[in-house]
Specification:
4% helix; 5-stranded antiparallel beta sheet; two-stranded antiparallel ribbon; mainly beta
């Protein structure tokens, strides 16, 4: 377990993470957004995809149920004000629909 503030892995850059666990399959890390709020994010080395696998944000946990992302897309946890996006993500021309 590591406590890092910033690390880059593949297409994703991890900021303000604690409890980073890495193995041959990928990296699992916890982002604490306040004293009691957290999101667990997993980046799969094989597929190159990132996903939120656990959170205590709400009953619905939309961020956990969002499909994994790779080169595009964003996972948002609105209650925790967390955004998971590839490092090359460009929000200049968003697609809504």
């Amino acid at each position: 377990m590591t406590n890092l503030r910033r690390v880059q892995t593949g297409e994703f850059e991890i900021k303000d993470a604690i409890n980073i666990e890495e193995n041959e399959q990928g990296v699992l890390f916890t982002v604490k957004t306040s004293d009691n709020d957290y999101n667990d994010v997993f980046i799969d080395y094989v597929s190159g995809k990132a996903s939120v696998i656990d959170s205590n944000c709400s009953v619905r946990k939309d961020c956990v149920h969002t499909a994994p992302i790779k080169n595009s897309g964003v996972i948002v946890c609105a209650p925790h004000k967390l955004k998971v996006a590839p490092t090359n993500f460009n929000n200049d021309n968003p697609v809504v629909g």
